[in-house]
Specification:
Blueprint: H1 12-28, H2 41-57, H3 63-90, H4 94-107, H5 113-120, H6 123-154
Length: about 160
């Protein structure tokens, strides 16, 4: 097992915070957040930014370091989205749900009454909470994979990969 390089994670906190904040903030804007539907775009770019910033602090970055940094970046970005999502869900009243149902019916008249009435039921908030939790887990996984990919793509110099 290769010896651990303690300097490789120098600047980890700052890098993760900047990469995670960037992806988390871009993930909560309506319209822009739809890009996360396509391969977790903002989460991946945030993890890439994290790795880029880590390479600036230290050009020696192992696979495990990139995996950790990408995962933490994904957790940070996904966590910001999850907190904002839970705040939005907790603010949903029955009146707001009914207004959403009417808007849904106006935009998609082909939906059956049973489909839109499912939104008004109690399980809707639970389903949304589960969806947000799933997003958070996927954000961690996407951040980890993006961290590994960014390590290979953004590596400075011509050194042998570790």
């Amino acid at each position: 097992m290769p010896p651990s390089n303690p300097k490789a994670l120098e600047g980890l906190g700052k890098s993760v915070l900047l990469g995670g904040l960037a992806s988390g903030i871009l993930s909560i804007f309506p319209g822009l957040n739809l890009l996360n539907l396509f391969f977790m775009t903002w989460i991946v770019l945030g993890a890439g930014l994290t790795i880029h910033l880590l390479y600036r602090a230290n050009p020696v970055l192992g696979r495990g370091d990139a995996l950790l940094a990408g995962s933490l970046s994904g957790l940070t970005g996904g966590g910001i989205f999850a907190v904002m999502g839970f705040i939005s869900i907790s603010g949903l009243t029955q009146e707001k749900l009914e207004l959403m149902i009417e808007s849904t019916r106006a935009m998609a008249p082909f939906l059956a009454d049973g489909q839109t009435s499912a939104m008004a039921g109690g399980p809707f908030k639970a389903m949304m909470a589960l969806a947000i939790g799933l997003f958070l887990l996927l954000a961690i996984a996407a951040g980890a994979l993006a961290g590994l990919a960014a390590r290979r793509l953004l590596r400075p110099g011509e050194g042998e990969p570790r």
